[in-house]
Amino acid sequence: MLNLGILLALACAVVTQLGFLYKHRGANEAPRVDMRHPLRTVRDLFSSKWFAIGMAVATSAWFFHVAALAFAPLSVVQAVLSTGVVMLAVMAERMFGFKVAARQWIGVGMTAAGLFLLVITLPASSGAHSSYSLAGMISFEAGMLAIGALLITGPRMGAPDHHHGVMLGGAAGVLFGVSDVAIKALTGVHDGIFGIVFSPWLAVAILGSIIAFYASARGLQDGEAVPVIAATSTAANVSCILGGIVVFGDPLPADTLGLLVQLLAFAMVVVAALVTPPPVRAAAANAT
Question: HSE on the CB side for 153, CA within 13 Å?
Fold first, then answer.
């Protein structure tokens, strides 16, 4: 079941990045996002064919994600999803006219090595557990919401113009992380559909997703595609990996060597996502 969760997470990673690239193309064809007029903004965005396609692709990625969370621990799912940042480089080059430099391929190697170490050091007892401390859950979610809000207001607090898109992308990622942690909690509800509907974590998941939707769309309009998408993916992955360990107590190896190797594996995956620079759009693509 753990291997199935990892496979679903890999599928989610690919489909998520593809959806982001389509949404970037569509968002830049639509009028500027204005959260003071949310309904008009949604109508304008979905009037773009490419944005609508991107949302459809992203919706299928969400189903892959929820299925992965049902079969594997949150931190493991998000570590696998971290590969999406380097998958983004490959798809951007092959499908959207970006040029990927040597440092991006170094990131691919770091991610692959980190995932290999992660898989071989997973404790045999690890599963899709979703039990959590209520106090820990509330504190973590509240802290992540505060960080997301701070990043959203960053442009109004004097942040450089060229950072606005990346900051909004990071805010969207943190808020997607808030939603994902809440969804993971919902996978452990045993009271049927009514237990899910009346759970406060459903409201948290919906609220986080809605705010993240607007922040992501505006970020895609204000910044270059790959840096903004990479910021979104990395922020979501880091926040969810922390959530898996801190909130849900995702297990680490009992022996010291295994613990050090797994911590190194997580570090390699996350660092690869953070330090891999964005591909540069090919001059030929700019000319078209």
Answer: 7
Q: What are phi and psi of 114, to 5 degrees?
A: -65, -40
Whether the CB-CB separation of 272 and 120 falls below 8 Å is answered with no
Please work out, in degrees rounded to the nearest 5, the angle formed at the alpha carbon of residue 116 by the alpha carbons of 273 and 278: 20
Residues 6+ apart with CB under 8 A from 191: none
Global pTM value: 0.78
CB neighbour list of residue 156: distance below 8 Å, 6 or more residues apart = none
Residue partners of 263: CB distance under 8 A and separation at least 6: 252
> Do residues 227 and 166 touch, judged by C-beta distance below 8 A?
yes
CA dist., res. 229 & res. 248, Å (int) = 27
CB neighbours of 260 closer than 8 A, spacing ≥ 6?
Answer: none
CB 92 within 8 A of CB 225: yes
According to DSSP, residue 48 is labeled: S
Give per-residue pLDDT as tens, 69-118: 888 877 678 778 877 877 887 888 788 876 766 776 777 677 777 767 76
For the segment 152-178, what is each residue's pLDDT rounded down to a tens digit?
987 676 666 657 888 899 999 999 999
Q: How far apart (Å, rounded) are the C-alpha atoms in residues 273 and 233? A: 9
Q: At 177, is the secondary structure helix, strand, or coil?
A: helix
Q: Which tokens belong to 32?
A: 């500027």
Residue 249, CB half-sphere, CA atoms under 13 Å: how many? 8
Q: Name the E strands within 83-217.
A: 98-99
As a whole number of angstroms, the distance between CA 237 and CA 84 comes to: 10
Closest residue by Cα to residue 275 from 239, 227, 241: 227
Distance between the two ends of the chain, CA-based, in angstroms? 46
Scan for tokens 């965005």, then name that residue: 45
Amino acid at 179: S
